[in-house]
Design goal:
Elements: H1 22-39, E1 51-62, E2 73-78, E3 87-89, E4 95-101, E5 105-111, E6 118-124, E7 134-138, E8 157-158, E9 161-162, H2 165-179, H3 183-193, H4 201-213, H5 217-230, H6 235-247, H7 251-260, H8 268-280, H9 284-297, H10 303-314, H11 321-331, H12 337-351
Parallel strand pairs: 1-7
Antiparallel strand pairs: 1-4, 2-3, 2-5, 5-6, 8-9
Helix pairs in contact: 2-3, 3-4, 4-5, 5-6, 6-7, 6-8, 7-8, 8-9, 8-10, 9-10, 10-11, 11-12
């Protein structure tokens, strides 16, 4: 039986932290909703659509002899929603390949005559990633088989762990509530399964999402931190954790993660959040470094120029704010409240000594 698996994307929620007008808050939240959704692209595939542009391939061999295992049936199932996915059969050389998979986590169930059923996964596929060919060893069945008269027992597994039907049902119910945006109900269901599946990274991620959606930021951080430590190289999880830490006001912890991310994977909103917190702490020079990095990553975004201009003012370098504020006027929609604000300040600078 294909196992239910915790869903894996975070809800779209803004992270900007300093006080602003209601229009500013709404504007930045809308922008950040889109960014958070992009960060979880690996998991954010529609439950009814497993198709995409990624490829998986492998070769099956006998664990004892190394000989190819031909004619094996491989069932690839996406780890969310209705668990859709294709089936494929290994060729005479034990090779198989599938093109057209979504960027997500995948489970693979393998059945071959004379071999023990093999379960592989979750296998993570990311957008643009080229996965190497997987070598999978198949265990030959023992000579003695159970009696044909012995009743078959349906086995439910989640992430390779056998669980009771009640636990599997709780995970499935949690997924459904999560997708419906009923976060408190999702927490209740996932917490039923967590003691049994506390080592399951996907469940940790899903429960963290449920906690976050239910407004329990600190519990969400605890679980996401465990997910991050299990795979520090996963920039998606690192960025999400950094943003949550910054939202919680944990500036140093958030900065520590941001500063270890590869340059090409740093999210502009993480940089803006860190800079804003530093600005609030009257550390304008340090804040300017983060705003400058944000501008270098996204020079067509007006926010970095706006906050760096404010940092110049806070540090007493009012004249230096002029070029940044002029870029705000150039890049931001005319209806943006900050445009009116910087126009008024630029007029002030004309007369200021």
């Amino acid at each position: 039986m294909q196992s239910p698996t915790p869903a894996g994307e975070f809800p779209q929620r803004a992270f900007f932290l300093i006080g602003r007008t209601a229009n500013q808050e709404d504007k930045l939240k809308k922008s950040l909703f889109m960014i958070v959704a992009l960060l979880v692209a690996m998991a954010a595939v529609a439950s009814e659509d497993w198709r995409g542009q990624q490829r998986l391939s492998g070769i099956l061999v006998d664990k004892k002899t190394g000989a190819p295992v031909a004619g094996a049936k491989l069932k690839l199932r996406i780890e969310k929603g209705s668990h859709g996915g294709p089936d494929v059969v290994s060729d005479k050389n034990g090779k198989w390949a599938v093109l057209g998979l979504a960027a997500a986590n995948w489970d693979i169930d393998i059945e071959a005559p004379g071999y023990v059923v093999k379960q592989v996964g979750p296998v993570g596929l990311m957008i643009g990633q080229t996965m190497p060919t997987m070598k999978i060893e198949m265990e030959p069945q023992a000579a003695s088989e159970p009696s044909a008269a012995e009743p078959a027992h349906e086995e439910v597994k989640i992430g390779g762990t056998a669980v009771s039907k009640e636990i599997a049902d709780a995970v499935e119910a949690g997924n459904n509530f999560l997708q419906a945006g009923k976060f408190k109900e999702a927490v209740t269901e996932f917490e039923k399964a967590y003691p049994t599946l506390s080592g399951n990274v996907s469940l940790k991620f899903a429960l963290a999402r449920a906690y976050y959606g239910a407004g329990d930021l600190k519990k969400a951080i605890v679980l996401l931190d465990e997910v991050y430590k299990a795979d520090p190289a996963n920039t998606q999880n690192a960025t999400l954790l950094a943003n949550m830490l910054l939202e919680d006001g944990q500036l140093e912890a958030g900065k520590k993660i941001i500063d270890t991310l590869p340059a090409g994977s740093v999210d502009i909103n993480s940089l803006l959040n860190a800079g804003i917190l530093l600005l609030n702490k009257k550390q304008s020079a340090a804040a300017m470094e983060y705003f400058t990095k944000a501008i270098s990553i996204a020079p067509a975004r007006w926010e970095g120029y706006y906050y760096r201009g404010r940092a110049y003012i806070e540090s007493g370098k009012k004249k230096l704010s002029k070029p940044d504020f002029e870029k705000v006027i150039e890049l931001a929609p005319a209806s943006t409240p900050e445009v009116k604000e910087v126009k008024e300040y630029l007029e002030y600078l004309k007369t200021a000594k």
